[in-house]
Amino acid sequence: MAEAKALIKQYFTILRTNETLEPNEAAIVATQFAKAHFEQQKAEGPSFLLKLSQLKEVCQHAGAWAEMVKLIGATFGDSEILNAPNFPKAPVPDDEPPLGLDLLRVDQMYEAIVSLDREDLSNSLAGACERLLHNLVHQAASLVDSSTVRQFAVMLENPLLIDPGYSTDITQKLLKAITNLPEPLTEVLKTVFQTYSTVRMSRLVDILQQFITVRLYSQEKIDDYVVSATRVLGLLAQVNDESPVVSIKLYYNDAINEQLDLRYDYKQWQRNPDDFCFCNHSFILDPAAKSVVLQEDAQAQMRQAVVNSLMTNFDLNPYLVLRVHRENLVHNTLAQINFDQSLKKSLKVQFVGEEGIDEGGVKKEFFQLLCKELLDPQFGMFTYNESHLHTWFNPNSFESDSQFRLIGAILGMAIYNGVILDVKFPMVVYRKLLGCEVSLEDLHSYDPDLYLGFKKLLEFDGDVESTFCRMFVYEYEWLGEEIAVELKEGGKEIAVTEENREEFVELYVKHLLDTSIQQQFAGFSEGFQQVCGGAALQLFRPEELELLICGSGDLDFEALQRECHYDEGFDSENAVIGYFWEVVHAFSDDQKKKFLKFATGSDRVPIKGLGNLQFVITKAGPDSERLPSAHTCFNHLLLPEYSSKEKLKAKLEYAMENDRGFGMI
Question: Which positions are annotated as active-site residues?
């Protein structure tokens, strides 16, 4: 040990004094230094962070790169070294990281090697990792000591994982070894993932996504390595769900969502739920892909519904047919929907007294009109918060449970019939539909101001009772009367203090978002679950369920233009069509939403984007003073052949702002 330090001191004394060494002498000293460096490593733990720059100087002066190659190969091929608590030697922190592993110092260690920019060093690092992983793939399942997880965490930071020249062999063996770890050690590895920053999480997710994509395209099948990568990605997704640092969109894989037969994957999932399939790893599926799975599930249930109807009622009709009057829409619908029958059949709607076959447009109008009436605050079932722009259940509603079941069923039927609804529920509604328990965080989507107020209450450092002056009651106004509901027995006499403030917030949120609307929401959920309930629904996150029902807010008008169809003399080369697209592309986001509302009946975008909207522009006669008009049921815009872009812009904006334009002058 002393000899090694003496050699290091000797060599750097020579460098500092600029003494000249004969070539042979320099080579001997450099070799001795490199070997001494390695011996010191084994005794104290590797300190690449401090010494690789010194070793680089030795090699440059004396040509001893071979010793560096040996050093790297011996270090990264040795589990004992990688699992040592001083690899790399970390400072003594106040809050020691999991396994005592300082990932920043691991980064610096790798950077020191990469910065030398030598292929022989990269080859040595890659070869060492491959040799080690060759054994670990078989040994991982038998590991029991949590310290052995360090080596996997260190190797996941290896910069060669993103280098196509090295990544394949290393990555596939590393991922296979990780998935072979026993569950207790997998949980230990997750504690390391929990320390990941946004940058670190994004980097590893990108590596895994790239590996899965390349593997799928090159192998044209799902092999064991794709399975391993998906499962490791799932560990990261679980950690991110608990404490988000990146968007869930980062976990969607385009190759899987766009290229694989997800209907087949769904069938496999139903037949053998324990086998690997992507439906069991739904974090990797985007909402559009999940909607494909849900539609396959719907079709399977619809087929079964037809069979059941045939066997019990001798009903051969594969459709659920409703005949309704516009002026009595809710009553007619309730009278014809039997909640004991299957609501999973495809829907056909006929407005009494009107001609026309329902090829989709009539059905879309039916959903729009019915939702508008049921959700109207004047109807009494729901309230509308002007400040936060959302609809909520009226806790004092006098309406029957069947009407709340109806609106729930309508949401489900709209999903199965591919209709986007213009509804604006806070996110907590979708969480509740998926069976999630409400918490303070759910209050943010319902009332962000109240949420911030409660956060301040919980974090306040001082006399809570005299500052906030709150009692254990929930107060609200109804029909001009102030009503106070005790959150616990004797709540009117119990002040909120520092000791009980957490209980107060929990009870308040529970009452507001759950207890006070329990009856109303129970009917709503029952109707929805009767139509959509099943395994496929559980693939969705709450925000994805909202997308499925309400569509997206992604205003990609370039995609809308690419897929637009023209009729009655218009085509993409027509001057008026050129004016039109110049005008709408220049709209603000708010104006684009108003245009969509005017032309399609909803300011939301289909889950697969505006490119999936069947949008048609038809010439509505020559230049005139008439306003543009729209058949919203068919996403059909009727546009006169205006003489100038300025005139088109003025007429279109007027029609949008007034939400009219059906032939007005």
Answer: 633
